[in-house]
Design goal:
The complex is a heterodimer of chains A (190) and B (137). By secondary structure, chain A is of the alpha+beta class. Chain A has seven helices and five strands, in the order αααααβββββαα. Helix content of chain B is 24%, strand content 22%. Chain B has a six-stranded antiparallel β-sheet with strand order 4-5-2-1-3-6. In chain B, a hairpin with an 8-residue loop joins β4 and β5. The longest helix of chain B has 15 residues. The relative contact order of chain B is 0.28. The model of chain B has no long low-confidence stretch (mean pLDDT 96). The chains are: A alpha+beta (190), B alpha+beta (137). The interface between A and B is medium-sized, with 29 and 26 residues.
Amino acid sequence: MTAYSATLERWIGGSSPLDSLGESDESKDIVRARKYLLSVLESNKQSIVLEVLKEFWDSSGQETFPKELIARLTYLEEVSEEEYPGQGLISEGSLRFFLHFIQWLTCFPTFDYPDVVLTPEGNISAIWKPAKNRYFDLEFLKDGVVRFAGSYPGTKAPSKMIRFSGRATIDNLLEASQFPHILGWDRIPS
Amino acid sequence: MKGDLVPDSDHIARYCGGSSIESDGTINRMAFRIRNGEEYLSVNWLEFLNKSSREEEIAEVRNVLRKKLTLGSRSRIAVADVGSLINHIRTERILKVQHEPEPEDQSHSGIFGYGIDDDLIELMIAEVFQETYSSKL
């Protein structure tokens, strides 16, 4: 067992910073995520996704990514290894940018974790579909810029979809866009 | 023949890698992004194959793709009719679907008229490719 795995096991088996979160569904999800991550780490599998997640865990001292998100990212890594043998597809820079964004996202009182796909360039694209006719995605580029696209029904003519797309720094996008409204998040974090 | 327009009434199929498919099975717009250096999006013209059913057409597309690509176990083949595709996007862009046969892939065709940065067009194309099949049996 590696030192890191031992640390994980100690956290999972003993007193954890997450204990203070009580027995909410969210804390259970996060503890399950740790157990999942530990099991994969012990399989000695080479994985950019897990290596980067380990770094985030080490630097923050706590885990903020639920099992479903970790499982989805590792799934995409496996799929890309299968389809692009020997090279894979996931961009490490895009993955780091995405995970930083997810950490920040928890500031929203009613945020939802996104689904994730990969772009042909290997970038992470996060997807939210809060309703059947609402869609928003963010592609995390290597240089800290995002590409985005979305659609939602117009208020005056709901049968007509409003579609939009663009490219911006994430700060400018949050300042200028209405995507929290589109996604149903009720307020910007203070 | 190379350069012929694929008729509006005909259908085209697009290979969609597993990493571009959402958790609920929806084909994401990333499956329709043109890669750097490509002039058009590669598709296969199904009626050109002269088969008697959609299943036979897809089986033939699988055979052809298998020679060109590593088909992922989670990948899909998405199908759309050309007329619906062009009409859906007409307000934003005039697309055309053109026959681009290759020696080992005679039904090979391309969607022309958009580029690598056209996020909105990718999104609208994905809205049309609703019919999907497994790319592996």
